[in-house]
Amino acid sequence: LLFFFFSRSSVKLVAPLGCFVSRQKHTLPDLPYDYAALEPHINAEIMQLHHSKHHATYVNNLNVAEEKYKEALAKGDVTTQVSLQPALKFNGGGHINHTIFWTNLSPNGGGEPKGELMEAIKRDFGSFANFKEKLTAVSVGVQGSGWGWLGYNKEQGRLQIAACANQDPLQGTTGLIPLLGIDVWEHAYYLQYKNVRPDYLKAIWNVINWENVSSRYVTCKK
């Protein structure tokens, strides 16, 4: 039994290692708004550096790690495959998390969600105010770098708040489907809010894109 292995220029047959590999390089997604669009809550300098430098670095490093993994897979080099897992997790998580984060924000955001999402928030947290307080507290409490998340527990059919360290992706590490992520790495706020993370978290609620979060919720329930 042979498996197809795709390279840029050709299709090769390689010895079986249990998977079918086909991949295109990851790319940095465009923002759906200008860098200055979230001011005064998140300034343009932060957005430009965060998107064009930090997120771009995760994308580039992910592509490098996947290329090395592809080579190790073709050779049957399990040791190298295992050694690449931290880089895949960190850079892959950084790409996944930020791709969600940009769509979770909007210059027309803020306020409160409506419809099914609001009903679920009231059901699972008592009120929107309680939910906002809990997610803020979890995000403030992240030690070092990481993320605060609102996720959907598909098995239990309920919303759940969680924190992830560094760039650990929510679904890949907890099983929760990501709906709303709040980046609490210092690069997300330090230039504007210095070391006062609570001020940044207070401000970010003014640009949360509830239409996007609601759409994610409706989709993951199907």
Which radius of gyration do the C-alpha atoms yield? 19 Å
Q: Span from first to last CA? A: 37 Å
For the biggest β-sheet, the strand order reads 4-3-5
Mean pLDDT over the full residue set: 91
Counted up, domains total: 2
Low-confidence stretches: 1-21
Q: CATH superfamily assignment of the largest domain?
A: Iron/manganese superoxide dismutase, C-terminal domain
Beta-strand share of residues: 5-15%
Query: How does CATH name the architecture of the largest domain?
Result: 3-Layer(bab) Sandwich
Give the overall form.
globular
Q: For the report, how would you describe the main beta sheet?
A: 3 strands, antiparallel
How many beta-strand elements? 5
Number of helices: 9
Order of helices and strands: EEHHHHHEEHEHHH
| Structural class by SSE content | alpha+beta
Enter the CATH topology name of the largest domain.
minor pseudopilin epsh fold
User: Approximately how much helix is present in the residues?
Assistant: 40-55%
Organism: Sylvietta virens (Green crombec)
Subunit structure: Homotetramer.
Binding site for Mn(2+): 50, 98, 183, 187
GO molecular function, one term: manganese ion binding
Describe the protein in words.
- This protein is an alpha+beta fold.
- The chain folds into 2 domains: 44-104, Helix Hairpins (Orthogonal Bundle), CATH 1.10.287; 115-221, minor pseudopilin epsh fold (3-Layer(bab) Sandwich).
- 50% of the residues lie in helices and 14% in strands.
- The strands form 2 sheets. The chain has a 3-stranded antiparallel β-sheet with strand order 4-3-5. It has a two-stranded antiparallel ribbon with strand order 1-2.
- The longest helix is centred in the N-terminal third of the chain and has 32 residues, at 44-75.
- The radius of gyration is 19 Å and the shape is globular.
- Residues 1-21 have low confidence and may be disordered.
